[in-house]
Amino acid sequence: MEGPQAERKHIPVLATESIAQLQIRRDSVCIDCTLGEGGHSRLILEQLGPNGRLIAIDRDAEARASATAYLREVKTEASWEVVAGTFGKLAEICRERDIVAADVIFADIGMSSRQVDEAERGFSYLQDGPLDMRMNRSGTDADERTAETLVNELGERELADIIRRYGEERYAASIARRIVAERRQKRIRGTLQLLEIIRSAVPAAERRKGNPARRTFQALRIAVNRELQELEDLLDAVPELLADRGRCGIISYHSLEDRLIKQRMRTWQKPCTCPSDFPVCVCGLLPLGKVVSGSGIEPSAAEVKRNPRARSARLRVFERIIGDAESPKRNRT
């Protein structure tokens, strides 16, 4: 892509595939739940005409400022707004703006390159920085709890549970035990300090497989930002907010998120809870639409070569289909 986007360090993942799957019309009402650096939002905005509308949400004040400047470069007659908030507050954000039904709901729930690359954010175990990991660290609504808080103040069992559950780390107990032992000697404040503690807690064979801190850092980030709960809240809101034939597309990067998205979309497609041997459905739960992305859309080899951080991405897309039994007021004209 030429122009301003080519000069930006952030590269939107699965950009072409996302726009194709979302089937944006010129008059669509679109919500990008994860504005980030503005890559996907810009592509969406470029599809919209005079009657189109884009709402772009992000909790990170620095990302909002950067992306707003980026979106202002787009020559468009569509209306657009950047909103401070989390994607878990989607229903509330729509309610405040009298949005009853959206044609597109999109989320890329990975981290932006800028967040990873800035050592002071504390997300990376490849460079030294404070153990922060907050997505929202400024303003009156800034999150108070940091990764430093968790590793220094949680009990060993709770810490191990976080690392095991959110990082799917088999050595969670050993890592938590070593963290607790080390913090008795000195408070754990930095990313590389934590990296060395994790290294010392896992077997040498495990260290040879790759950086042993990856899963623990992922777990702490998820816990600090309540990422899975935010995703649950987003998925709760989507069916009621999608217009007839509207589409929801979500890009995830690890199995915890992808499993949650896959299971929820399957339930929307086939919500019936009747035993399989019942001749007819008696639960009364009707399908809400259909999954249109099969087993998920992954980046091409060419994209991964161009942007290695895209390698674990998976896009899942659901199309809402409103039947006659549902309220007609939710159909857009």
Give your account of this protein's structure.
The protein is an alpha/beta fold and 333 residues long. It folds into two domains: 4-112 and 227-330, 3-Layer(aba) Sandwich (Rossmann fold), CATH 3.40.50; 115-225, DNA polymerase, domain 1. The chain has helices spanning 4-7, 15-22, 39-47, 61-71, 90-96, 113-117, 147-153, 156-167, 172-185, 191-201, 204-207, 214-225, 227-241, 255-269, 301-306, and strands at 29-32, 53-58, 79-84, 102-108, 242-252, 289-291, 314-320. It has a seven-stranded mixed β-sheet with strand order 3-2-1-4-5-7-6, with helices on both faces. Helix 8 (156-167) crosses helix 9, helix 9 (172-185) packs across helix 10 and helix 13 runs parallel beside helix 14. The longest helix has 15 residues, at 227-241. It is globular and about 65 Å long.
Order of helices and strands: HHEHEHEHEHHHHHHHHEHEHE
- Individual helix count: 15
By CATH, the topology of the largest domain is Rossmann fold
The CATH C-level name of the largest domain is Alpha Beta
Q: Structural class of the helix and strand makeup? A: alpha/beta
User: Helical percent range?
Assistant: 40-55%
Form type: globular
